[in-house]
Write a structure and sequence with these properties.
The chain is α/β, with parallel strands linked by helices and 207 residues long. The protein has eight helices and seven strands, in the order E-H-E-H-H-E-E-H-E-H-E-E-H-H-H. This is NADPH-dependent FMN reductase.
């Protein structure tokens, strides 16, 4: 049975956060869909709220601090990504954008991504298509067809989510699981992962 690493990036600012809740729902649904395909998932959550100061420092210095570096490695080393942001002023949050701004070029190339967002009303739902989807396309990620937006009204009085939201979550999760099931994960090869021993380099020079 194949175990796939799925990074779940959420940019909620409050605790508890509806953005984190949507990320959890999408992750659980994806895990369930993968199990139906004969695979298992290892979910790794990255709450950007915890890295806000380090992200600002990274923009200035060009280097991520230890905890932020670990979060970045979770994302760039994953087989798939679930990315969820609150919508502010008809677009993704600054915190969400900053995280993806500090990633190395092509570090998300080829990775399947499920995008989601939360907001106060349904009128902000198109931000997924005019802001998030183009950003991930620019990063050469492979975004699944269904994006998931959850307005306050979608959660219902119980906070469990109405049938419309549940259906969208399940559809998007199934699309992500099917992409992962159809092809092996292809990640960029780091040339420093398996360096040529120094003694061999010397021998080659002498020869």
């Amino acid at each position: 049975m194949t175990t796939l690493r799925i990074a779940v990036v959420t940019a909620g600012l409050s605790q508890p956060s509806s953005t984190r809740l949507l990320g959890e729902r999408l992750a659980t649904a994806t895990e369930k869909a993968l199990q139906a395909n004969g695979s298992t998932a290892r979910l790794e959550f990255v709450d950007l709220r915890e890295h806000a100061q380090d992200l600002a420092n990274n923009l200035i210095t060009g280097f991520p601090a230890g905890s932020l570096r670990a979060a970045i490695e979770k994302v760039t080393g994953a087989d798939a990504l679930i990315a969820v942001t609150p919508i502010f002023n008809a677009s993704y949050s600054g915190l969400f954008k900053t995280f993806f701004d500090v990633l190395e070029k092509d570090s998300l190339a080829g990775i399947p991504v499920l995008i989601g967002a939360t907001g106060g009303s349904a009128r902000h739902s198109l931000a997924l298509e005019h802001a998030l989807r183009p950003m991930f396309a620019y990063l050469h990620a492979s975004v699944v067809p269904t994006s998931v937006y959850a307005a306050t009204e979608d959660w219902g009085s119980s906070g469990a989510g109405g049938p419309g939201l549940v259906d969208r979550i399940d559809r998007a999760a199934t699309e992500l699981a099917d992409i992962l099931d159809r092809r092996p994960a292809v990640r960029p090869v780091d040339p420093f992962d398996d360096p040529i021993p120094f003694a061999q380099l010397l021998a080659d020079q002498r020869a």
